[in-house]
Amino acid sequence: AKFTIDGVEYNVSANEGQNQVHGGFYGFDSKLFDAKIKGNKVEMTYVSPDGEEGFPGELTSVISFQLTNENELILDYRATTTKATPINLSNHVYFNLEGHKAGKNGDHLISVFSDTYVPIDEALLPKGDGELATVNGTIFDFQNPTLVRKVINDFIVSCYSFGDRGTRKHVARLENPTNGRYIDVFTTEPGLDVYFSSRMKPNLYGKDGAMYGPFEDGGVCLIPMQLPSGINMPNFPDTILRPEEIYTQRTIYKFGVK
């Protein structure tokens, strides 16, 4: 759990074996954000002090959530830092189009509009210096609508590559043919992580006392992000944010019914 920036090595907290995931033992998911209502948006701000979980620089992150009349949930991210630091902000929302209390729902169809993904090793890290491989002929091929229950038992996690960063791309669709509900995912990020709730901790309870996992196919994560471990992968795009720069990204979840 380390990286080097401008010749300086930084050791960050290792909360998964020798590696770090989700920002460390107390990542942003466990932090209390300042919240403000601004028009039709909710804006969340968190200032991460220099050295938190081992990361250099005071990082100020502002994330806004906006619901539109076009049935869109828009997430805008903005961040600045006082020292050069790696950054890869995202969310980990699970979707169940049958309803949050539905439990198992193997009728989800998933489509990911990419023909390349990031192969991983036994530690779930990208192989080599950051390899990309074709999805063709693999369990990771979701270029056409794929029934979740057909892949859930063998699928661990996968990050799909979409090339550039900064331009809006239609990266995925999740749909439920039973009730016609669907979600289209658009993002400016170069990657999309796909994860299923079968890997969730047991007896995890959500709103109204509903148990969310682990279910065979109770929910699907569609996580726009930069490519994983990019700071240590020479072949992946640069993930370093510097003091003179502003980090921005946008993700849109567009809901509909057929």
From TrEMBL:
<dbReference type="Pfam" id="PF01263">
    <property type="entry name" value="Aldose_epim"/>
</dbReference>
<comment type="similarity">
    <text>Belongs to the aldose epimerase family.</text>
</comment>
<dbReference type="GO" id="GO:0004034">
    <property type="term" value="F:aldose 1-epimerase activity"/>
</dbReference>
<dbReference type="InterPro" id="IPR011013">
    <property type="entry name" value="Gal_mutarotase_sf_dom"/>
</dbReference>
<dbReference type="GO" id="GO:0030246">
    <property type="term" value="F:carbohydrate binding"/>
</dbReference>
<dbReference type="GO" id="GO:0006006">
    <property type="term" value="P:glucose metabolic process"/>
</dbReference>
<keyword id="KW-0413">Isomerase</keyword>
<protein>
    <recommendedName>
        <fullName>Galactose mutarotase</fullName>
    </recommendedName>
</protein>
<dbReference type="InterPro" id="IPR047215">
    <property type="entry name" value="Galactose_mutarotase-like"/>
</dbReference>
<dbReference type="InterPro" id="IPR014718">
    <property type="entry name" value="GH-type_carb-bd"/>
</dbReference>
<comment type="pathway">
    <text>Carbohydrate metabolism; galactose metabolism.</text>
</comment>
<dbReference type="GO" id="GO:0033499">
    <property type="term" value="P:galactose catabolic process via UDP-galactose, Leloir pathway"/>
</dbReference>
<keyword id="KW-0119">Carbohydrate metabolism</keyword>
<comment type="function">
    <text>Mutarotase that catalyzes the interconversion of beta-D-galactose and alpha-D-galactose during galactose metabolism. Beta-D-galactose is metabolized in the liver into glucose 1-phosphate, the primary metabolic fuel, by the action of four enzymes that constitute the Leloir pathway: GALM, GALK1 (galactokinase), GALT (galactose-1-phosphate uridylyltransferase) and GALE (UDP-galactose-4'-epimerase). Involved in the maintenance of the equilibrium between the beta- and alpha-anomers of galactose, therefore ensuring a sufficient supply of the alpha-anomer for GALK1.</text>
</comment>
<dbReference type="InterPro" id="IPR008183">
    <property type="entry name" value="Aldose_1/G6P_1-epimerase"/>
</dbReference>
